Amino acid sequence: MTPDESFEATPHSNPPYDIVNFWCGDQDRTEMTVMCYGGRFDILALAKNMEECPAIEREFLGLVKDLLSMNNDDFEYKPGESDPMEEMCHWMAEACFAQFRALAPRPTEPRIITVEEYYTTPSIQLTITVNDGQLTAIQSSGNPGDLMPRTRLSSSYTALTASVPLLEPSMVKLPWDSENERPSRPSRVLVGNEGKEQYFKPAYREISERTEREIKTLLRLHQLGLSDKIRVPKIHVRCLLEMKSERQHHIFEKHGFIS
């Protein structure tokens, strides 16, 4: 679907959200990043912000306890039982629904964005709290976050991929997810003016060695002519983002997988 095609909104009882990051390292604190419509939200849940209502605080701490139990050696997920991760994520998101609706209005038509826009759109900071005995969320201050992969690959990688074309991130666009009324995650992407559909693979934080090893292996397999005998993903183009304020290169590798 393109922005020029017809778009008819369908009613949702709750705002559709997509969890893109979650963290729980303490017994009284969880953090989550979600996408909702065109907005990105960093959500903080902290037990001390719920002390006004002991019942809500106990509920939260119980969810954290269940979640951390997944790290136990004897933890075993049983089909039919609630998933601690899903329970916690939904609990946090539900507290923020009013803010989602207010700060990320439902789109009236599809909006096609680029990979660069997806990764660099600043997050809105929300803190879960209690107001008059009800769980809610308030907008809070903090450094706006982003989802930018921050992997700086070596000079040997640069030489290795010299023959692979370099594509501007503005030429890589995300398809529209009509069911959830938001841009899709950057996995299946539209490339170039013709909008050719291919697959995108970002090089995420602190895995540069793994990324370089994977790319080197793929290129080597193609050089040896083995792609005719086994199914080998082909790297069509590279997509490079440079954050000038940090004087750091952010590398994305887009793989076009052979079907």
TrEMBL record:
It comes from the Eukaryota. This is Uncharacterized protein.
